[in-house]
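User: Quick sanity check before I run a bigger batch. Here is a single chain. Can you write out its predicted 3D structure?
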Amino acid sequence: MADVALLSNGRSAGSQGRLAGVRAFCASSGGIFHYEVDDLSQIEVAMRVIARVRPRVLVVNGGERAVQAVLAALVGGGAFGDTPPPIAVLPIGRTNLIARDLGADGDPIDVLKRIVEVARGDLAPHVVRRELIALSAGSTQPVFGMFAGAGGLAEAMLYCRNRIYPLGLPSRLCHFLTGCAALLSLVPLPGRLLPRRPAPIRLTLQDSKRLEGRFQLLMVTTLERMLAPRAPSSGTLKMMAVERRLVPMLRTAFAASRGRLGDRGSRGVHLGRGAELRIEGDGSGVILDGALFRARAGEPIVLRTTPALPFLSLAAT
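Assistant: Done. Predicted structure follows.
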């Protein structure tokens, strides 16, 4: 039995520069089983190999796509059956939403050291359970994650990825500039320097709450730290939809600055919880943990919750 099994995606742009340091740490620290893949299609085989060493903790090093592939393998039963080990995620890339929700922030090798220390002791205080979002679009196989952005948020994320990140600026500055551009996009200005205008969509939350229009901000998550917990109704998908108007967006920006994003609804700001959300609208974009999907006419994108999986939280006490 290994204390930690580390699965690294060697092709991930975020992990390539640190892979030599990760290898060196694994070689010098006993109890780590390190398995590297060169393609995401190899992850299913990797999981079967890792299951043989019966790790106490499974660590993913390789960015959002690698995390999605591992989650898909675990949800399907696969090598670990109904008793997968707690999952930890190294902070790789620009956003690291899942890693941050689990308290894994900072240098990836430092985070790995902390995970190894925890794995050698009592795991119980650090194990948390999280439901996932299963995204289905048309006839494609479901994709799994924990944060989905749609409407103007998806267009802003694409704008940041394609226009701002290539400038080589620090992540926080990139996100600030993107936020400013998203607010400016509410004003009818000429040119193509701002994020694309979101397409009109129809939202149906668990066959009850229905909304229709253009939404500048639409987020759906099972992450604990992303939205305040006091959304109405029941269910594990937390949804926040902000209409494409200046006043609701300014209210939302003010709430976010106070750490109260999603704390309460208001005119133009809609909150909800549920086990299923349908997004309908031709051409509307949905990004699930970095992967882009486009809704088509007559083929809604459906987000559902899954049974909870165990995760290792470095923030847990």
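The domain at 136-305 is CATH 2.60.200.40 (Tumour Suppressor Smad4).

User: Great, the batch can go ahead then.
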